[in-house]
Design a protein that fits this description.
Layout: H1 7-15, H2 24-33, H3 40-47, H4 51-64, H5 74-98, H6 109-130, H7 135-144, H8 147-155, H9 157-168, H10 174-182, H11 186-196, H12 201-209, H13 223-241, H14 249-262, H15 267-288, H16 298-301, E1 333-337, H17 341-353, E2 357-361, H18 367-374, E3 378-382, H19 387-398, E4 407-412, H20 417-424, E5 429-432, H21 437-482, H22 493-510, E6 514-521, H23 524-531, H24 533-549, E7 556-559, E8 564-570, H25 574-589, E9 593-595, E10 598-600, E11 604-610, H26 618-634, E12 640-642
Parallel strand pairs: 1-2, 1-3, 3-4, 4-5, 11-12
Antiparallel strand pairs: 6-8, 6-11, 7-8, 9-10
Helix pairs in contact: 2-5, 3-5, 4-5, 5-7, 6-7, 6-13, 6-15, 8-9, 8-11, 9-10, 11-12, 12-13, 13-14, 19-20, 23-24
């Protein structure tokens, strides 16, 4: 698996403005949490501005600790969770609220969030076994672990829809298809986004590797390894709950039991935990207005008759049943807010008569949450005695990206300056109550024309964004091709020069060591002359792959010539660089290359150099390693020589 995304490339994607991002209160929390001097009181004051987030935060806090008295206040939740976890939860819940649906065909947004929610609950449950990480931190990691998929679906909806279709048809694994089409993958992009949001590397690195753990550089028992194993298990539990194909549930459950055992969770405890996960999933789904289904009996899947899955009294409750699919959105959507039910019905009938879908509210209390869910084109707001709150609401809407595009029509009780001030806070038009139906229809007709113009303008902007995204993908693919060796797939000489300069400057700035290995395949010309260049190409590819797999996770290998490679070892001492070189020699010696009825063997010579104060620049460091490999050749090949031996 490739290394995490180059942050220069991530900056290019981020600059388009198409990546999922937190909004409103969540954005304020994110900014405040970066200030080490911020107090819990200040943060609590901001959090209280979003009642929906308050409810979710308090529920998350109650799920972390077993307490006789439940947590009921924001301040208590902050004390239990801490600012870091609150920041991560704000991110996750904000994305869930704002990206419940999108334009990517083939991407199931509701199932994505259901899976992410199950992963969050599962990770929180597994905290009792791995013990080295707090439960609230694991909840946040589980909720955000797959954010890279949402990012690609949001940034490149059409292309990603085709990728998902190809993956479902078995035309390749998802990550490979993503990289070949978009020059990045959801694991790389998710890692970069979480890093950009300030999530610690102990979580971002496991998120990068958990879908392809074979390439993970973590040692057994390390926190990163435990978090990665927990993510693998949590994803498996989510897949079981979300009804995998018939015949696969048993296989997935057997795998999950084995995975749980590696974390110290026995079969019976795991089955009991799965039942609790299912119950919490139903509760959270109701709170977050997500679909949930009655999960399978985990005990029956393992052959254990236990009180495991959600009992009929809870998991089979009405809210746990899969909700009926929502009807398609009408061409235009309106939200009507009026306290008087008779007047509201009269107005709604007129709006529906113009072919506009209507959502009705009796008050202003939950309007922000409903606006995020419905995303109306038109807001009809009956301003009664709540003038001050109505003005604040309109200003808050106009401050958001979504609210700026909503056409706001006020119904004012009187034509006086006090009520006109509400209109001046940012509304588009107003009518005086009691409302004449003829006047309402006329104003709605004008509103429709303006909304249509906005839609046309947005469509043109979307086409421009799509064109810019296409260009950016093409540029990234060309750039990657220009920096990649076509035969071996390794970075090429051009990349090596730039990366060496980058690592040299980093080592200088942070007073770190920097090791370099120059690797040369011994007698490779003889292989080409005797067996032909086709066999030589096969040998080169296998040798390159062997060298790559023998390196540490942070090391970089590049092909710099026909049979020559450069290995960059950041923060490596001389002893570590020599050990790496010896390991490369040993792996190549044991490599067997099949050629019809023959087996070819190769050896390599390696020159090693480590940065010291006498070196002027990165070029001199590479020259010393190059000189050392020449000495290894002269001493009989199949050797490792350090530059300091002959200096």
């Amino acid at each position: 698996m490739s290394a995490p995304i180059d942050f220069n490339r991530f900056a290019q994607i981020k600059a388009t403005g198409h990546l999922p991002s937190p909004r409103g209160v969540a954005l304020s929390i994110l900014r405040m949490a970066q200030d080490e001097s911020v107090s819990a009181e200040e943060l609590a004051h901001v959090i209280k501005g979003d009642p929906a987030f308050v409810g979710r935060l308090v529920k998350a806090a109650n799920g972390v600790l077993i307490r006789q008295r439940p947590i009921v206040s924001v301040r208590e939740a902050l004390m239990v969770l801490g600012i870091t976890s609150v920041r991560a939860m704000a991110l996750g819940f904000s994305l869930l609220s704002n990206y419940r649906k999108g334009n990517c065909p083939g991407f199931d947004y509701r199932q994505f969030w259901s899976s992410s929610l199950i992963m969050a609950i599962s990770m929180q449950m597994l905290a009792r076994y791995i013990q080295q990480v707090a439960a609230d931190e694991l909840f946040s990691v589980g909720l955000l672990a797959r954010v890279g998929e949402l990012a690609l679906a949001t940034a490149y909806p059409a292309k990603y829809g085709r990728i998902l279709t190809e993956a479902k048809a078995g035309e390749g694994d998802l990550i490979t298809l993503e990289r070949s089409t978009l020059a990045t993958s959801h694991s790389e992009l998710g890692h970069a986004m979480l890093t950009d949001w300030g999530i610690p590397t102990v979580f971002t690195d496991p998120v990068f590797y958990f879908e392809q753990p074979a390439g993970a550089p973590f040692a057994a028992g390390e926190r990163e390894m435990l978090v990665m194993q927990s993510l693998i298990l949590a994803r498996n539990v989510a897949d079981i709950c979300l009804e995998p194909p018939v015949g696969q549930q048993q296989e997935r459950m057997d795998r999950a039991v084995r995975q749980a055992a590696r974390l110290g969770c026995g079969r019976e405890n795991f089955i009991e935990d799965c039942g609790e996960i299912a119950r919490q999933w139903a509760d959270w789904s109701k709170l977050l207005q997500l679909d949930s289904v009655t999960p399978p009996s985990f005990g029956m899947l393992t052959g254990v008759q236990a009180n495991d899955s959600s009992p009929p009294s809870r998991a089979s409750a009405p809210e746990a049943k899969k909700s009926a699919p929502a009807p398609p959105d009408a061409d235009l959507r309106a939200m009507l807010v009026a306290r008087n039910s008779a007047e509201r019905m009269r107005l709604a009938k007129a709006v529906k008569g113009m072919g506009i879908a209507v959502s009705e509210l009796s008050g202003l209390g939950s309007i922000m949450e409903r606006v995020l869910d419905v995303q109306p084109h038109l807001l009809i707001l009956d301003v009664d005695e709540d003038r001050g709150y109505a003005s604040q609401l309109i200003r808050a809407l106009r401050a958001s990206r979504l609210g700026r595009c909503i056409y706001i029509l006020l119904l004012l009780p009187a034509d006086d300056e006090a009520h006109i001030a509400v209109f001046e806070s940012g509304a588009d038009d107003f009518l005086i109550s009691p409302v004449s139906m003829r006047m309402l229809v006329a104003r709605l007709g004008a509103a429709q024309r303006i909304v249509r113009l906005q839609q046309e303008l947005e469509h043109e902007r979307e086409e421009l964004r799509h064109y810019a995204a296409e260009l950016m993908i093409s540029n990234r693919c060309l750039q990657e091709a220009a920096l990649t060796d076509a035969l071996t797939g390794l970075p090429n000489r051009r990349y090596a020069r730039g990366r060496m300069q980058q690592e040299w400057l980093t080592a200088m700035r942070n007073a770190r060591t920097l090791g370099v290995l120059v690797v040369d395949i011994d007698g490779f010309k003889h292989v080409n002359d005797r067996y032909g260049h086709d066999v030589g190409d096969i040998a080169l590819r296998q040798a390159a792959d062997t060298l790559r797999r023998a390196l540490r996770g942070q090391d970089v290998i590049c092909r710099t010539g026909g049979d020559e490679f450069l290995v960059i070892c950041p923060s490596a001492t001389l002893a570590e660089a020599l050990a790496c070189a010896e390991r490369l020699c040993e792996r190549i010696r044991t490599l067997e290359i099949l050629n019809e009825d023959q087996i070819l063997h190769l050896t390599i010579s390696v020159g090693v150099a480590v940065r010291d104060a006498s070196m002027a620049d990165a070029v001199e460091l590479v020259k010393r390693a190059d000189h050392a490999v020449l000495q290894a050749k002269q001493q009989g090949r199949n050797k490792v020589v350090a530059a300091h031996v002959f200096q």
